[in-house]
Design goal:
61% of the residues lie in helices and 8% in strands. It folds into three domains: 298 residues, no CATH class; 58 residues, no CATH class; 170 residues, no CATH class. The longest helix is centred in the first third of the chain and has 27 residues. Helix 8 runs antiparallel to helix 10, helix 16 crosses helix 19 and helix 23 packs across helix 24. With 680 residues, the protein is α/β, with parallel strands linked by helices. Strands 3-4-5-6-7 form a five-stranded mixed beta sheet. Strands 1-2 form a two-stranded antiparallel ribbon.
């Protein structure tokens, strides 16, 4: 059993030979002599210049970094575009560098810096016009970083393979690399102590992990820090994709996902800096104590780059948990992990914050994160404490919803407008959480669509008055004497939410009619039901509402989208699929005024379609509510014939084949395609 001197933690002078034990961790024999530690300093033989690639012995290699930086950028950009061949870059590095630790470390730092910079740029491009809380946004926004992180490891491994045997002894490395060595050694010692205290496995199991750590670090000191950071990027990306509790809010506080990743990787890097050995050791111990189980995977990892990469993949998510605890303590953490883990995460965060406080570039960022995060989430804590556990659970479920950040801001704005009475705020928050928690996924999609196309409190801008104002979704829950019901409205909107043409406000008019239009309520509901039927029948359709057609306003216009090639690349263009008029007559009768209004509309529709490229009337549809259709079907069919005959002279004068149009009208009516009921 390993019982070597703890001084090795500080000096990392152990050359370790590791023999893999058989069986599961619990089956390891703690008395078996499987690891041997010898306190020596290895001095590898330096290869002669002739044994190196051309130019590798050039002492001015580090001066070539600016030229290599351009090639590094080109290669990384190509990798993002799908060009995965790194050989040109690796060959250039082999040819233009020397076994100079400072030069090699500078190149690795350049690769890392450009990875973060280009990954952030590509992320910003991918997220243009999107919110981090949109479905799939986290994956899309972090994909560039996750694509580039393995490149860092490949470059590091290639440099070590080329120059490793010719590097000077570790004791001759520059001071900054010596600091990395001391910091990582201290971290490894703390990691071993923390794992040992967990009691999950036999002592020997943890000593094996520590031995692998020491060997991997010593033999790969030049690239160890970079590989661990690359692993952290991958691990954080994996964690972000699989668990979104509070993470989206954190990303938005930091303005982007890549900034979050960079901050967390900076936490790992800062542990290996000069003077941070004690912090590194304590952090290693706390990480292992807070989440011992993931570190057990290190036991089966091969010594070297794979071990260091896996170490980073484990560290990244734990650092993420620590910063999540800082912004979301209380309800968020209580629902995500047990109290013991939460306490340990708090210790980690406190230690990291102490370390980062000494770094001038990080301090302002931490202050901003703390201020903005606590300002938002702390606002809800008193009310949640009053409401109790059930409300906290509903609040947690809300955080996992799409665009939860925007919803929280909307809720806060409403609650702040009520009063300073905590009891009223708590009551209102409870009602809001109850409402949201009761929404189905489809109804929730309708809520998000409503929030994008808010109507006004007066159905007509011609009569604004004091009540003419935007009405948010929270307002709907508390407005008295409103014709429509918020939940029913969201249920109507949900099925069509993803098929609304953007940048068109006709839907706002429909929503205003539904909520505040008086007698227009049933008509607006009918329009939304008809739109759902159109999309059900045409899954590729995109719909617009209240479209101005010069001679009259059209209720619904449906388009199909197709992509065409232009000199600016592929562009989406819309192709007309259907023009729908929606009528709702639940009484089953028509007044004199209604009759003549319908007749005028029919005449306009027939003329428009016959003279605008639709002589077969294939793009025209009238959708009637089921009750009205059953009662008025025959009368409406007769009215279409009357409308056609009244426009006979006009149509002939415009060159329309009247007889062919008459046949088309008859066929469409008989087939139930021009006039039909919409489904409820």
């Amino acid at each position: 059993m390993l019982a070597g001197p703890r001084a090795a933690d500080q000096q990392v002078v152990a050359a370790v030979a590791v023999q893999q034990p058989a069986g599961s961790p619990a089956a390891v024999d703690p008395t078996a002599d499987q690891v041997t530690v010898v306190d020596v300093v290895s001095t590898p033989a330096v290869r002669t210049p002739g044994a190196l690639p051309p130019g590798a012995a050039d002492p001015a290699a580090r001066n070539r970094l600016p030229d290599l930086a351009a090639l590094i950028e080109t290669t990384l950009r190509g990798h993002l575009a799908g060009e995965t061949d790194l050989r040109p870059l690796l060959d250039a590095l082999d040819a233009h560098l020397s076994p100079d630790p400072a030069a090699l470390q500078a190149v690795l730092q350049e690769v890392w810096d450009q990875t973060l910079r280009l990954g952030t740029e590509a992320s910003a491009a991918a997220m243009r016009g999107r919110s981090w809380s949109d479905a799939g946004a986290v994956e899309a926004g972090l994909a560039p970083l996750l694509t580039l992180a393995p490149v860092v490891t490949q470059v590091a491994s290639s440099l070590l393979a080329t120059f490793g045997a010719a590097l000077p002894p570790v004791t001759d490395y520059p001071d900054e690399l010596q600091a990395v060595m001391r910091g990582m050694a201290a971290f490894g010692g703390g990691l071993r102590d923390g794992l040992t205290g967990s009691g999950l496995c036999e002592l020997q199991f943890y000593e094996d992990i520590y031995a692998k750590f020491c060997t991997s670090m010593q033999e790969h000191m030049l690239i160890a820090s970079t590989v661990v950071q690359a692993g952290m990027v991958i691990g954080i990306g994996e964690r972000l994709v699989e668990d979104l509790i509070g993470i989206v809010a954190l990303i938005l506080l930091l303005s982007s996902g890549p900034i979050l990743v960079a901050v967390l990787c900076y936490a790992g890097w800062s542990l290996w800096q000069a003077g941070a050995e004690q912090v590194a050791r304590e952090t290693g111990g706390m990480l292992a104590a807070a989440a011992a189980e993931p570190f057990l995977k290190l036991h089966a990892a091969p010594v070297g780059v794979e071990f260091l990469l896996l170490l980073g993949r484990i560290m990244g998510p734990i650092f993420l948990d620590a910063i999540l605890l800082m912004i979301g303590e209380g309800a968020v953490v209580a629902g995500a992990r047990n109290a013991v883990q939460a306490a340990r995460m708090a210790e980690i965060w406190a230690k990291l914050k102490t370390l980062w406080a000494t770094l001038p570039d990080v301090r302002p960022l931490l202050d901003e994160v703390a201020a903005r995060a606590f300002e938002l989430l702390d606002f809800f804590k008193p009310a949640l404490a009053t409401l109790g556990t059930e409300a906290e659970e509903k609040f947690l479920r809300l955080l996992q919803r799409e665009q939860s950040d925007a919803l929280l801001v909307e809720i806060r704005d409403y609650l702040e407008s009520l009063s300073e009475d905590p009891a009223k705020v708590a009551t209102a928050l409870g009602a809001i959480l109850d409402f949201l928690d009761d929404l189905s996924e489809e109804e929730f999609a309708g809520l998000l669509a409503y929030e994008r196309y808010r109507p006004y409190s007066n159905a007509s801008p011609a009569h604004p008055g004091p009540q003419y104002a935007e009405v948010g979704w929270v307002d709907l829950l508390f407005i008295q004497d409103m014709e429509g019901n918020a939940k029913e409205l969201f249920a109507l909107l949900g099925p069509i939410a993803g098929r609304l043409c953007l940048h068109h406000d006709g839907i706002c008019t429909v929503l205003g009619d539904y909520l505040f239009g008086g007698g227009k309520y049933t008509g607006a509901a009918g329009v939304l039901l008809a739109a759902r039927q159109i999309i059900d029948d045409r899954p590729d359709a995109w719909v617009r509402f209240e479209v101005d057609a010069d001679d009259r306003v059209l209720d619904i216009v449906a388009y199909g989208a197709e992509f065409v090639w232009t000199n600016q690349g592929f562009r989406r263009q819309y192709v007309l699929q259907l023009v729908a008029e929606v009528k709702t007559y639940p009484s089953g009768t028509l007044t004199h005024d209604q009759y003549h209004k319908l007749l005028r509309q029919m005449r306009k529709d027939l003329v428009r379609h016959a003279t605008s490229g639709d002589p077969q009337l294939e793009l025209l549809s009238w959708l009637i509510d089921p009750v009205g259709y059953q009662a008025l079907n025959e009368q409406l069919r007769y009215m279409f014939w009357e409308a056609l005959h009244l426009e006979h002279g006009n149509l002939v004068n415009q060159g329309v084949d009247y007889l062919a149009l008459e046949v088309a009208l008859m066929e469409r009516l008989e087939a139930g395609l021009l006039l039909s009921p919409y489904r409820i």
